[in-house]
Amino acid sequence: MYNQSDFNIDDEMIDELRDLGYELNDYSLSDSDFRDLDFDGYSTEDSGMILDVPYVPSDEKIVHSLLNLAEVTSEDTLYDLGCGDGRILVAAALERNAHGVGIDIDPMRINEAIEYAGHTGVEHLVHFAEADLMEVDISAATVVTLYLLDIINIKLRPRLLDELLPGTRIVSHAFNMGDWKPDQQQRCGSINLYKWIIPAKVTGIWEWQATNGDTYRVSLQQKYQYVTGTAWINGQAASLKNALLRGDLLELTVQADNSRPIRFLMRCQAKQLVAAEGDLQATPAVKIS
């Protein structure tokens, strides 16, 4: 599936994995019960690098749980990275009328997926392609499903964050994303299922006018969906009481001394933060230098 040239592990990734308590030659990873995983096809170099991802089909209950966790509807385009025999996409098409794209590097699995889709009559809703999931264009996805390994999820993580639109949902069977904590996690039997929502990029200094004439400014720092920062009102230091980011929605609560806190709910849109609720924001927030 993967070879040395396709999957290079840099020092930063190694440090993160070790900080998270992983050993590069430890395939137990994030869950305690992986009796369904067959690692006989794995091979390693002296570095302990993983060269292959084993093919293990997801149980039917897990397939339905993943689709429920991702809240898949007929409006979605679901990308399954490492799609195997295509059962997740076929289930999404049959039960939810969702469009889907399956990516796998194994031509045998792609042929199985195409045959399965044809047999179930959903070939008009799904497309399967033999490709490298580290290189294929994923920008059209509104939902992404994964059943890979932690180490591969971490390698894939920058692409997910940079290429998917804010609000895109990612669900993973069993394996997590390192220090990118999930927005939601649930159990299906003995297996963990994880969900992340791609956050908008809000790092920087933003300024806007309130309807009462006050000028608000915030300086925001961001790590994944977690936001911190400082605030000013009319050039005077204020308190940023709250900063919550979910997809493309940003909620900021700012309070000046001896006054009530003011809450702004904004939607990240075309490099601006436009009012998504209420009538307190007179102008979009724009990023300044």
Describe this structure in words.
The protein has 289 residues and is α+β, with helices and mostly antiparallel strands. It folds into two domains: 11-197, Vaccinia Virus protein VP39 (Rossmann fold), CATH 3.40.50.150; 204-288, Beta Barrel (Lipocalin). 20% of the residues lie in helices and 33% in strands. It contains five helices and 15 strands. It has helices at 11-19, 60-70, 87-96, 107-120, 150-163, and strands at 77-81, 99-104, 126-130, 143-146, 169-173, 184-188, 191-197, 204-209, 215-223, 226-233, 236-246, 249-255, 262-269, 272-277, 285-288. The strands form two sheets. Strands 8-9-10-11-12-13-14-15 form an eight-stranded antiparallel beta barrel. Strands 3-2-1-4-5-7-6 form a seven-stranded mixed beta sheet, with helices on one face.
Task: Write the SSE topology.
Blueprint: H1 11-19, H2 60-70, E1 77-81, H3 87-96, E2 99-104, H4 107-120, E3 126-130, E4 143-146, H5 150-163, E5 169-173, E6 184-188, E7 191-197, E8 204-209, E9 215-223, E10 226-233, E11 236-246, E12 249-255, E13 262-269, E14 272-277, E15 285-288
Organism: Oceanisphaera ostreae
GO molecular function, one term: methyltransferase activity
Keywords: Methyltransferase, S-adenosyl-L-methionine, Transferase
